[in-house]
Design a protein that fits this description.
The chain has about 110 residues and is α/β, with parallel strands linked by helices. It contains 4 helices and 5 strands, in the order βαβαβαββα. The chain has one domain: Glutaredoxin, CATH 3.40.30.
């Protein structure tokens, strides 16, 4: 089964920005209700896109530098990053099919 990647301030450059695959990064926090609702969806997406895209989660409380760098104000916010650049952004606990559609636009 696919597992989402735990993104951090330390590994963001090498694992996310330098990745040759499209990366979905879910910015979340443990105190955020909608983030918790989105959690299982992110895990399902990690399964669905195993080998095709990287699905990552970044805890904004533990990794304030990256969250600040991308101006993340409300969570959950999801960024799709490809070739080191943000190519898409979604805010809120969206349904899985909407998120998947966005990822699909940036794969391949």
């Amino acid at each position: 089964a696919g597992k989402y990647f735990e993104a951090t301030d330390k590994n963001f450059q090498t694992e996310i920005l330098d990745s040759d695959k499209a990366v979905l990064v879910d910015f979340w926090a443990s105190w955020c209700g909608p983030c918790m609702m989105l959690g299982p969806v992110i895990e399902q997406l990690a399964d669905d896109y195993e080998g095709k895209a990287i699905i990552a989660k970044l805890n904004v409380d533990e990794n304030p530098n990256i969250a600040g760098q991308y101006g993340i104000r409300s969570i959950p916010t999801m960024l799709i990053i490809k070739g080191g650049k943000v190519v898409d952004q979604m805010v809120g606990a969206l349904p899985k099919n909407m998120i998947a559609k966005k990822i699909d636009e940036h794969i391949g």
